[in-house]
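The protein record filed here:
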Amino acid sequence: MGKRRWQSVYFRSLVLSLPVLLALLALPGPSRSEEGGARGRDVYEKYCIGCHGEKGDGRGEAAADLIIKPRDFTLGLFKFKSTPPGSLPTDEDLKRVITNGLPTSAMPRFRLVSDDEKEDLIAYIKSLSGRWKKGTPERRFTEVVVPDFVGTPESVRKGERLFAERCRRCHGTKDSGPPATFFLRWGGEDCTDLVRPANFNYGVIKRGPRVEDIYLSISAGVDGTPMLSYADLLSEEQRWHLTSYILEIMGKVRR
């Protein structure tokens, strides 16, 4: 084939393939969340798969030995969050649980895992349930400032009265601890979750170690359990008084 003829064939081939190349370049690449989800699977397999399972359904190899079963991420239901009942958690909610763990449960804390890995892991967890494609978190209890009166003797006394009216039936008294245990079903019949009300005598709650965590548990409730949201049942001041008394039971009120 002559040089001129070869150049002609090459030129025609280039012209014919140009639209295809342009179309391929125009295709959208993976989104940031998709890329994070792909990296997050590696993080998940490193830290989470043993309890939460290969599919994220809470049926890992260690799950059978646990009384309180690992979260089933495929349902998109989470207990500890700053959003109203029924709403999805924020990324910050999920990050807090990963970082601090859930005291008195088998969920350890992962404070040494980098923020980038946590964000990638959260992206992967969100890919496991279709709920994230249908809705977004409804922000409500994100700005929490502890009032100066929390922990004062007067606030503790007011909280004690509220506790007797609202909380004692499940959480027991300062001396006895919780008298109740609940069995809940998050998924199929073979996915029974044992729920025990918080025993404040232990000095810690699952949501976290901060004063704000007690207030959030009272305000937002604990989704999927008998622990209601009291945001519409008690005033903000009353919820802080309850927080004061719970701090007293936990031995965290300074005298």
Remarks:
- The two ends are 99 Å apart (CA to CA).
- The chain is about 45% helix and 5% strand.
- The longest helix spans residues 3-26.
- The mean pLDDT is 84.
